[in-house]
Amino acid sequence: MVIEESQWLGKLVEKDLLEKMLSSFSKSTGLKAVLVDIGGNTLVSPEKEIKDCRFCQMIRSDGTGIDKCRRSYARAGREAAKYGEPYIFRCHAGLIAWAAPILLDEYVGSIICGQVLMWDPEDYFLEEIEEMVKGLDVDFSGVKWAAAQLDVMSSEKVQAAADLLFVVANQIMKSGLTVLEQRRKIASQQARLAEEIQARKRAEVAIRTIESRSLRLYSLEKEYELKAKVRNFEQEEALHLLDHLLADIIGKQMEDIDTLKTRIIELLVIISRAAVDGGADLNDVLQLNARSYRELLDKKDSDEICLWTKNMLKTYMDHIEISKDQKNLQATQKAADYIRENFRQKLTIDEIAQAVYLSPCYLSRIFKQNFGCTLMEYLAQVRVEKAKTMLKNPQFNVMQVAEESGFEDPGYFTRVFKKVEGVTPSRFKQNAL
User: Fold this and answer.
1) Which of 49, 277, 304, 407 pairs with 93 at a CA distance of 20 to 30 A?
2) Has residue 325 got a pLDDT over 50?
3) Listing from the earlier edge strand, what are the strands of the sheet with 96-104?
4) Read out DSSP for 99-157?
5) What is the tens place of the pLDDT at every residue in 119-158?
């Protein structure tokens, strides 16, 4: 997306936010930072918090000086954008400054900070300053005196200030890119809806009464399908169906925003009921409904409403997934409890699954996801833990321990125990006594 440099500031990043960021930076560092466009023109400046140094005020008192400052800022910004990192430079008047680029799809501006010295101003430097400002209508002796009064910063402090400025620039970029991404989504949604609407127009029939009835039946059918897709947690298919329904609604209520909102509320009711049927918590869904209705009232644009509706569909389906995850966790915990209570018996996966009312295949999958091991591996761990406790008791021998721990075959008990603990039961018992 190409944005004219005169427009990007107000449309992508709130000016109040920019002023607050630059003001905070200036107050914390004592250094003035300004936001400039790609031509070096100042867009935002914390003028109330910190003024230009006396040196810069004298240079900028001349129109040529202002123009040179602008060109110097523009060049530094381009260099910073080229490498995507802070760029430390010497301005046209000889002072040290640094630039942090603002990149929003393309280079749109930079933050300039300075101006300081990095060395004590000796005679040759002051003579150099006089040479660099020739051609300006300024008092040369006053300029040299002002240069001599500037703060001297070490290279480490200059680099640290440049890095901090880059953090501020990145925050601005993050804010701007969020707006850009929202615009892309709306544009993409608008394109899809426009294509769908055009397809509908090409398919219009001569008798509008018949067409109206047909479209209503079509919508009812699609709404029924949408409810089924949401309930079965088929998200991609549900989003595709919602695109068709939104195109149908927009095509008929393009000019009436209130009627559009009413139809969207009807869709949300369908979606929310399907979410509850799919396992979402009823109280969570009711709270989400209340929030969504309030949000919808504030929407003014049909494209924004459509994108918001799709995001709400995803949110409802997220609640289904959360509920499923919670139920799966409860089911696997019950399975683990059942194993710990019945480990002495000859357990099978089918028996454990039957105890928690799930299919063996599904329980095996979610148990591995939540516990990181299979049902049989967990059973072996429980039995080995019981065996370890008994092996520490002198009155039990290895065969007794194997039997009491649920192992019918002492040889199998030895193999499993060694696999889990790294030693045989006999060695473990010797070490424990």
Assistant:
1) 49
2) yes
3) 42-44, 32-37, 106-116, 96-104, 87-90
4) EEEEEESEEEEEEEEEEEBSS---HHHHHHHHHHTTTSSS-HHHHHHHHHTSPB--HHH
5) 777 767 777 777 888 888 888 888 888 888 887 888 787 7
pLDDT tens per residue across span 1-14? 444 444 455 555 66
Alpha-carbon distance of 237 to 228, in angstroms, equals: 10
Given this model, what pLDDT does residue 207 score? 37
Domains and CATH numbers, the chain: 8-179 (3.30.450), 204-324 (no CATH), 342-432 (1.10.10.60)
Which residues, at least 6 apart from 374, have a Cβ–Cβ distance to it below 8 Å?
Answer: 364, 367, 368
Q: How far apart are CA 358 and CA 236, in angstroms?
A: 26
pLDDT in tens, 255-285: 678 888 888 888 888 888 888 887 777 888 8
The single-letter DSSP state of residue 279 is T
The answer to whether 43 touches 108, Cβ cutoff 8 Å, is no
Distances, alpha carbon 36 to alpha carbons 68, 69, 83, 104, 306, in Å:
14, 11, 18, 14, 36
Cβ contacts of residue 301 below 8 Å, gap of 6+?
Answer: none
Most confident of 185-199, 308-322, 407-421: 407-421
pLDDT digits (tens, 9 = 90+) for 209-237: 334 444 454 567 788 888 888 887 788 88
Identify any residues that bridge with 432 across adjacent strands, giving them in sequence order: none
Q: Tokens representing 61?
A: 């008192």
φ/ψ of residue 111, rounded to 5: -105, 125
The rounded distance, in Å, linking the Cα atoms of 326 and 304 is 33
Alpha carbon distance 11, 108 (integer Å): 13
Q: What's the burial of 97, exposed, middle or buried (CB within 10 Å: 0-12/13-18/19+)?
A: buried
Cα(416)–Cα(110) distance, rounded to whole angstroms?
A: 66
Distances (CA, A) of 61 to 57, 138, 221, 313: 6, 8, 73, 59
- Cβ–Cβ < 8 Å for 305, 267: no
- Strand 32-37 and strand 106-116: the pairing is antiparallel
* Residue closest to 384 by CA, chosen among 365, 364, 366, 407: 407
